[in-house]
Amino acid sequence: ASIYLWAIIMTTALGVITSALKKNGALTKGEVPSPDEAVDALQTLNDILSSWSNEAINIYSRVTESFTLTPNVSSYSIGPGQTFNTPRPIIISSAYIRVDATDYIVQPISEDNYNMIGDKSTQDRPVTLTYIQSYPYGAIKLWPNPIAAYSLYITSEKEISELELSTVLSLPPGWRKALVDAL
Q: Under a CB-based contact definition with an 8 Å cutoff, are residues 143 and 126 in contact?
């Protein structure tokens, strides 16, 4: 399994916009954009993201989400309109199951390692997760099969395609600056 070490940079779309407007001199220290300025800049920021994605330059954000598992179901589709209804992850970096106040690690493993598991009918609290990234949605396979309706927490990297002013972004180093500079 790959390990990703980042210094996570937290900001919002409005924070990126405010920084960009200060950098280009449209705002001074202590000023904030008017609602009209913020909406106009947000449209431009979304246009930049759209343009970059057309050039295969994709901006990713790290997101943690929770999903409820179904007892004795080991495979889940993930993507818009799927069992786990969320934008399709590029990568799942970590996962855990929370039982009462205790978190139990669910180790991401490769599809090859998952395929080597002999008895996939075993039931217990899942300890491994395999993410199969396909298009237009992905698949998550858990082992063992869950024996209860656990809450599965997944931390993943997802492509940013459309922002709102309040969208919270968790970006790797350098990506916030790239957005501010482009805007």
A: yes
Does the model's pTM come out above 0.85? Answer: no
Neighbours of 131 (CB within 10 A): 23
pLDDT in tens, the chain (183 residues): 444 444 556 788 899 999 999 999 999 988 999 999 999 999 999 898 888 876 766 677 788 999 999 999 999 999 999 999 998 898 899 999 999 999 999 999 999 999 999 999 999 999 999 999 988 899 999 999 999 999 999 999 888 777 889 888 877 778 889 889 999
Query: What gap in Å lies between CA 17 and CA 60, rounded to an integer?
Result: 18
CA 52 to chain centre: 18
SS3 12: strand
Taking a C-beta distance cutoff of 8 angstroms, is the pair 163, 95 a contact?
no
Q: What is the DSSP string of 53-118?
A: HHTT---EEEEEEEEEPPTT--EEEESTTSSB-SPPPSEEEEEEEEETTEEEE-EEE-HHHHHT-S
144 token code pair: 């063992």
| 110 contacts: CB under 8 Å, gap ≥ 6 | 1, 130
